[in-house]
Design goal:
alpha/beta; FAD/NAD(P)-binding domain; seven-stranded mixed sheet; 8 helices; 17 strands; 24% strand; elongated; oxidoreductase; FAD/NAD-binding_dom
Length: 327
């Protein structure tokens, strides 16, 4: 379906009875990447975004070829400018409801009709209830060594035992620093884990943290219940990832045993016409991986639309031939 459209450029939602080929919900790396490819394929696309990117607290993102060290907001600005060139509509707003078909209703706004739906709403990080963690999140309280460890290399680092994966995290961080402490906090270490940590040069500190010690807008250490302060310049921890998948659940998309929406390799869900990509289905996907997921889904969606377009054209062709035969 070749389109003629007026780009809203972050304005109001499209109105009237027009049907978009694809509605993309979420304008992070995965959603924008999908919109870029679909726009270049001359599909009628609208992107809806609530403006709540997961990596907003981070000053820089890393591991994205040609964009390493770029502020996350700058990447999104560049992405929006790129899809703008291809006539993709961008709408600021939050989706209230989606009905099969697909009718996408915005909070306090109109209904946007679409032939296909791509959900790229990401996730939210649920942080431990420890004073200082939320305030320092993305600064010197971190979670991904591949994303952040190089910037704090050779510094005294701590791993907070809030998740069984903290042991692996502490072992991994030894690649960036020789001074790593694993604070057990809520974690029960097995004898094997203790042996691995000690053998690999990770110091184990028993005790529970009560707060982060911050001075002059810099992390200075971690205070324990017994009053000790463990001097550190950065803390790594595992947040609990909570997917923003309410819309997918509403549509009845199947989930796995861990509660994550199941997709195939292209991002296709169990519900016909619905794709999901990025952190909403994979909490481990970094920015560059999420962008790739968006592109992969866009190829699949365009192919799916093409098959439908061809089937409809063939049906019209047969009907025309049948009518001509009767006259």
């Amino acid at each position: 379906m070749i389109k003629t459209t007026v780009n809203t450029r972050d304005g109001a939602a499209p109105t009237g009875d027009e049907v978009h080929d694809v509605v993309v919900i979420g304008a992070g790396a995965s959603g924008l990447s999908a919109a870029l490819l679909l726009g270049r394929a001359r599909r009628r696309v609208v992107v809806i975004d609530a403006g709540e990117p997961r990596n907003a607290p981070a000053a820089h993102m890393h591991g994205f070829l040609s964009r390493d060290g770029l502020p996350p907001a700058t990447l999104l600005d560049l992405g929006r400018a790129e899809i703008d060139r291809y006539g993709v509509d961008i709408v600021r707003g939050r989706v209230e409801h989606v009905e099969p078909g697909y009718d996408v209703r915005l909070e306090g706004g109109p209904v946007i009709r679409a032939r296909r739906l791509l959900v790229a709403t990401g996730l939210r990080d649920e942080l431990p209830d420890l004073p200082g963690v939320r305030e320092r999140w993305g600064k010197d309280v971190l979670h991904c060594p591949y994303c952040h460890a190089y910037e704090v290399r050779d510094q005294p680092l701590a791993v907070l035992g809030t998740h069984p994966g903290a042991v692996h995290q502490a072992l991994l961080l030894r690649q960036w620093s020789e001074d790593i402490v694993l604070l057990t906090h809520a974690l029960e270490l097995s004898p094997q884990e203790r042996e691995q940590l000690e053998a690999f040069g990770v110091r184990i500190v028993e005790g529970r943290a009560v707060r982060l010690v911050v001075d002059d807008d810099r992390l200075r250490g971690i205070e324990l219940t017994d009053g000790r302060v463990i001097p550190r310049t950065a803390v790594f921890l595992f947040p609990r990832p909570a997917p923003r998948d309410d819309l997918l659940a509403l549509l009845g998309c199947a989930k796995d045993d861990q509660g994550w929406v199941v997709t195939d390799r292209t991002g296709r869900t169990s519900v016909p016409g619905v794709w999901a990509v990025g952190n909403v289905v994979d909490p481990r996907a970094q920015v560059i991986a999420a962008a790739g997921m968006g592109s992969t889904a866009a190829f699949a969606i365009n192919t799916d639309l093409l098959h439908e377009d061809v089937e409809h054209a063939a049906a019209r062709h047969r009907a025309h031939r049948a009518t001509a035969a009767l006259t």
